Automatic annotation (TrEMBL):
CDD domains listed in its UniProt record: VOC
Sequence ranges assigned to domain VOC in this UniProt record: 6-124
Gene3D superfamilies with a match to the protein in the record: 2,3-Dihydroxybiphenyl 1,2-Dioxygenase, domain 1
Name of the protein this chain belongs to: VOC family protein
Organism from which the protein derives: Ideonella dechloratans
Domain of life: Bacteria
Length: 128
């Protein structure tokens, strides 16, 4: 079974998310949207679009978004078969969170790594 197929998103917290988003927009040219982040569409070597997007977002420090993880960031990994991967992780003794989400954006599940980081696993909707 193939496990991770790419990075779906990078999310982190900041003391002043508005100012930090503005810094990234001004100095690095990231097209920060009103929702607090940006979406980077995937392209091939020739610059042509391919299926996939990586989200990037800055949220407020102290948010519960990454709980029970202990880090001020979370990486979202794109996966091909979320249910099968979560089951395999459980069988391997990993700390898989019982909560899972299924929405128009795809299926989401979470695991805590050995150092306490919450890791998000995302199976995009069919055709994405």
């Amino acid at each position: 079974m193939k496990r991770v197929t790419g990075i779906g998103g990078i999310f982190f917290q900041a003391k002043d998310p508005v100012a930090l988003r503005a810094w990234y927009q001004r100095h690095l040219g990231i097209d920060v949207q009103p929702w607090g982040g940006a979406a980077f569409d995937w392209t091939d070597a020739a610059g042509q679009p391919v299926a996939g997007t990586t989200a990037w977002s800055i949220g407020p420090q102290g948010s519960e978004q990454f709980a029970p993880g202990t880090a001020p960031f979370m990486v979202n990994y794109r996966v091909a078969d979320l249910d099968a991967l979560l089951q395999a992780l459980r069988e391997e003794g990993c700390q898989v969170l019982e909560k899972a989400d299924d929405s128009e954006y795809g299926k989401f599940g979470w695991v805590i790594d050995p150092e306490g980081h919450k890791v998000e696993l995302w199976e995009p909707p069919a055709g994405s």
